[in-house]
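Possible regression after last week's pipeline update?

I re-ran a chain I had predicted before the update to compare outputs. Posting the input and the new output here so someone can diff against the archived version. Not blocking, just want to make sure nothing changed silently.
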Amino acid sequence: MYGAFPIRPARRRRNPVSNEHPAAIEQPLYEIRQEIYSRAVSGWFARWRWALVIVTQAVYYGLPWLTWNGRQAVLFDLVARKFYIFGIVFWPQDFIYLTGLLVVSALSLFLFTAVAGRLWCGYACPQTVYTEIFMWIERKVEGDRWARMRLDQQDMSGRKLGLKAAKHGLWLSLSLWTGFTFVGYFTPIQELAGEIGRLVVPGAAGAGPALGPWEIFWVLFYGFATYGNAGWMREQVCKYMCPYARFQSAMFDPDTLVITYDPERGEPRGPRARNADPTALGLGHCVACGVCVQVCPTGIDIRNGLQYECIGCAACIDGCNQVMARAGYPKGLIRYTTENALQQKLTPRQIMVRAFRPRVLVYTAILWSIIIAIGFALYSRIPLKVDVIRDRASLSREVDGRWVENIYRLQIANTQEVPHRFLIRASGAQTLQMSGEDAVELPGATTRMVPVRLRIDKGSLAAGAHKIEFEVTAADDAAIVARERSVFLVR
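New output (post-update):
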């Protein structure tokens, strides 16, 4: 059940009249997409799915409009190479934190999948979220499953054209707003809104930079991707484009909670009167209504077993539970359960106990270790960065016949958003002296290149490279200090 999903080869037919060698059936290289008319469903899992839709989109659309210290709270300023996340400013040198975030995301995906299958796909994946929103718009404009099917079968008319135009107009509006918000994470969104306003209404009041070609491109590109993926491709993205569906079976085991149809309880399936006794009729609890297929956004039949097309949205559970309630049967014909639970008749408590198996505990321990390490690194992070660059045009020179001088350039970055005065010191040799600036004023979140000349008495050191150390300290906070090593060359 949880192994690879085999692709059955095409069957060969033998000609009943002649004894010719059987010929292979011709099949098209690409399967023609069959339109899926998913049916609206309500229930416990549907409410959870919509709660996550609301939360994720409130964060996505609302976050760029928040302000912090007089600027956008979350802004990835690629031009200035600064990444603002509330009170923290990240620089390119902080790439290690992005690496940690990606590792945490990957381990979280492994953990959630090992415990309960495709939770990410079914509830929080952007493709699922936007498809859910687009289908909600479609139902509000064109109606539920049967109304949409009848509408598509009708000849073109004024009513049909109007409904289609309204639906696609709403889709395009939401898609463009999504693209605009995406670009707003990289260009200050309030400035971007003003630029687009001046573009739409030429001569509108307000001064500011013109809307750049790259901003226009990414607004349209991301909007087009949202419109195409959620409006037209939908399940195609999950079935053919997303690699997760292909390797998910390697992350499952017999104790992974997956959406499962209980064949022992449901078979043999068949229709019956509402008050009929299924035992007397020799039938299981499945009434063969097809609701589980009708509500599925990828159009699969969960009664055929686990399939890679299943995104784990649990719509079939809600639909089947409604039918079971109307028929007077216990809920849970389709439910979250495990392979071992079906085979060994495990109780819910036993299922939960087996959920905390070694694999899950190891994933959890590693995940929390990395999260704690990243949190500690952020908490103890020193808001000062110093890079020492030697002046290669003048590695070592004599000055006034009594000094040996080396020239350095110190790249000092104040990563906090408050100004600091930094003191510069150098050590490593007894006669080492520094000329030039020994202090520098830096506004918040800025960098400055400071030239530094170091001298020693001629003859006080042997020829060669000698280790030295630069120390940069904030005058108003001794805890903000950075030390960088370099060498002093004597010829």
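Follow-up from reviewer: compared with the archived run. Residues 158-183 form the longest helix (26 residues). Marking as no regression found.
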